[in-house]
């Protein structure tokens, strides 16, 4: 009898153990995948075109995003999986907000999608192909760097014979991109190399010089500051050690004197240890409207089209190549910033000087190599649109709040839209308010 009872107890115990066995992670993932709806990359692009208020959530860690990059969409935000329940309300306050979640290998995102559905969100989908598939398809990305073996965001590429440019990140200056968010170019003449833009730090200029030395043994004799902004001038501290003559516009020294403390502090806070040995240096030579660089075998003309993005913007013209290095007079791929000393009206009025040159190839201040039509779209057309909209706000008796409401959705997918669109509207309004 006792033996029989013992056997019955053991069987009952085994039944309880089997019933209480933990569910595996794979079972949870399988269950989540069955409950959610997946979406493809093409469908994501269609979604944001029809519903620009959609939210695309990268649930990977911040470390992964900084190391590998993320989707280059305005709607893209990073909320790590562990914080999703606590931060989703800030990003998607309405339960019917269109939401797409993704990760790298479709492990965390199905669970994230299921969690959002359990929280009451009614329009959630999972991008099961994930970040790596998006990248493999060549779709737009936001990346800290394209080459982790150099401080340069990417190494210089040849544009025409003897002209190279290292295209910077189409984003604000960050530690991850080492402050290389503008285009650093150089031209090889018969007797010397001319560098256009010093770079945002001593170390960045040094990295650029290493690339130049791979291509030519000629010395760098001239450095051109495109303007007085930090990403154009801090590398001058390296180039001056190489015996290079620094050239800038007549307005640059005064701007450097008035902004040096603020610009230095901003760069140091952003670049931290990468700001090593960087300091502001005044130019050795300045000019007003035009200057022919004294090099052999190549006609290199520095120009100043007039007030625009900055009072001291410089352009470099290569008439024999029909190529213009526009500096910050022209932008591509990303939204231009309106600075405190930007003159929007004169920028628009001076645009005809660029059109008169009619360059076949343009290396813009920011963004990839392009043509006149493209920089006109990203620069003049945007300025004209914003100026007209602000004028309408003023004519209607509106205030700064109304300027913030100007519809800029047509530019939403431009890089730096999130950082600059509202600030641009405010600054243009303040400039035009008392005209």
From TrEMBL:
Entry superkingdom: Bacteria
CDD domains referenced in this protein's UniProt entry, alphabetically: metallo-hydrolase-like_MBL-fold (cd16282)
GO BP, one annotated term: antibiotic catabolic process
Signal sequence, start to end: 1-18
Keyword Hydrolase: no
Pfam families tied to this protein: Lactamase_B, Rhodanese
Stretches assigned to the Rhodanese domain: 50-143
Keywords: Signal
Sequence similarity: Belongs to the metallo-beta-lactamase superfamily. Class-B beta-lactamase family.
PANTHER family, alphabetized: ACYL-COENZYME A THIOESTERASE MBLAC2, METALLO-BETA-LACTAMASE DOMAIN-CONTAINING
Record's protein name: Rhodanese domain-containing protein
Upper classification of the organism: Bacteria, Pseudomonadati, Pseudomonadota, Gammaproteobacteria, sulfur-oxidizing symbionts
